[in-house]
């Protein structure tokens, strides 16, 4: 991992600009994924009107009556899909103060009653009705379909960037691919990449946090632990976090007051103690086969790529320890199921938000194994 100081920007339109432009993109992709693990994808092949539509829908989704949102509660869904109230999740061992919906691409499979529990992670999502939010499901489903197509195109390009055949990652996906379910989220940080507020940061090799502030016409792309494991650590699963953005201190340095009369002060580095308002994020998570054991299906590289891995500087001190089970020979689905139920200890990064209450209701045997003393105490 390099001590990067900014997140690289890759322009997707280079791929249609001739062989020289395409070669430039592939080279930039190799550097971004092996040295940073984070990138901005400029001009992605997703319709602008869909991007704007999903952004416009986000506040409307959270403005639904509380009773309507509670009717879609995740705790009632064995696939961990649905709504979570503010403070209902646990991330990195602590209560996570955000409101969130988890959705998914269409599930077209059939349940095997004798199959492993983790197969139940793929199932039908809970959507607001067209009566409550007209057009929401159709719009988001169309957007997610384009994200799925882009994700597979991206993986083929990444394989090429690593000196591999373009189909090198196909072993990690089911056939046909449309049987796979990809997870999605719509998140509201009430006191905080779909709204123009900063907050997302990536950690470099020196342990410093580098802002990944919103940029027009871009998607933020980062790799996960499964990809890092499959690529023998060549592609980095970079730690990241979301902070509450603050307003800068006014030139006169005076104490400020909110509309309701509550006073707020300034930190020693000149930032307000008052949050700047809601931040919305709409991430998409590409899935891999639930049955594949990643550690038993590692990629083999040409010597040129092996030299790149050998000559790269040390990883440095980051906080990324989540999903270590990928390296222990467990099926991908089981790793995901454990991650959905069990809170990750403090200082883990890109930790999934755990939902032990869902685990207790729908996966009681695994819950008892993970929590012999009952539900964890929130901090």
TrEMBL record:
> What Pfam families does this protein map onto?
2OG-FeII_Oxy (PF03171), DIOX_N (PF14226)
User: What are the boundaries of the region Disordered?
Assistant: 246-268
Gene3D superfamilies, per the entry: B-lactam Antibiotic, Isopenicillin N Synthase, Chain
Task: Quote the InterPro entries the UniProt record gives.
Answer: DIOX_N (IPR026992), IPNS-like_FE2OG_OXY (IPR044861), IPNS-like_sf (IPR027443)
Any idea which GO molecular function terms this record carries?
Answer: metal ion binding; oxidoreductase activity
Which residues belong to any copy of the Isopenicillin N synthase-like Fe(2+) 2OG dioxygenase domain? Answer: 179-246
Keywords, A to Z, come to:
Iron, Metal-binding, Oxidoreductase
* Domain Non-haem dioxygenase N-terminal intervals: 7-129
Record family assignment: Belongs to the iron/ascorbate-dependent oxidoreductase family.
Name the UniProt record assigns to this protein: Non-haem dioxygenase N-terminal domain-containing protein
């Amino acid at each position: 991992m390099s001590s990067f100081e900014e997140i690289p920007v890759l322009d997707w339109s280079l791929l249609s600009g001739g062989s020289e432009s395409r070669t430039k993109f592939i080279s930039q992709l190799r550097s971004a994924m092996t040295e940073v693990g984070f990138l901005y994808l400029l001009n992605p092949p997703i319709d602008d009107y869909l991007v704007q539509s999903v952004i416009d829908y986000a506040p409307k989704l959270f403005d639904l009556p509380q009773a309507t949102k509670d009717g879609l509660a995740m705790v009632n869904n064995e696939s961990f899909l649905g709504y979570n109230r503010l403070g209902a999740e646990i991330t990195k061992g602590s209560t996570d103060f955000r409101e969130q919906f988890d959705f998914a691409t269409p599930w077209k499979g059939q349940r095997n009653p004798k199959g492993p529990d983790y197969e139940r992670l793929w199932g039908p999502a809970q959507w607001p009705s067209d009566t409550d939010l007209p057009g929401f499901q159709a719009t988001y489903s169309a957007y997610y379909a384009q994200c799925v197509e882009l994700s597979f195109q991206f993986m083929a390009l990444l394989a090429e960037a690593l000196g591999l055949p373009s189909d090198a990652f196909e072993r990690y996906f089911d056939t046909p691919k449309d049987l796979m379910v990809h997870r999605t989220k719509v998140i509201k940080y009430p006191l905080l990449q779909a709204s123009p507020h900063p907050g997302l940061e990536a950690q470099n090799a020196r342990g410093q946090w580098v802002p990944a502030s919103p940029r027009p016409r871009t998607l933020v792309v980062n790799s996960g632990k499964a990809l890092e494991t499959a690529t023998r650590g060549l592609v980095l699963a970079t730690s990241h976090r979301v902070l509450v953005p603050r307003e800068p201190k006014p030139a006169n340095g005076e104490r400020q007051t909110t509309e309701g009369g509550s006073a707020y002060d300034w930190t020693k580095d000149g930032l307000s103690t008052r949050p700047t308002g809601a931040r919305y994020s709409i991430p998409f998570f590409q899935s891999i086969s639930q049955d594949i054991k990643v550690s038993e299906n590692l990629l083999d590289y040409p010597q040129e790529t092996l030299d790149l891995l050998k000559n790269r500087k040390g990883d440095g001190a980051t906080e990324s320890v989540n999903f270590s089970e990928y390296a222990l020979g467990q099926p991908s689905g089981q790793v995901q199921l454990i991650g959905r139920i069990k809170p990750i200890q403090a200082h883990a990064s890109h930790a999934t938000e755990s939902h032990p209450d869902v685990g207790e209701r729908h996966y009681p045997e695994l819950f008892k194994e993970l929590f012999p003393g009952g539900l964890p105490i929130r901090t």
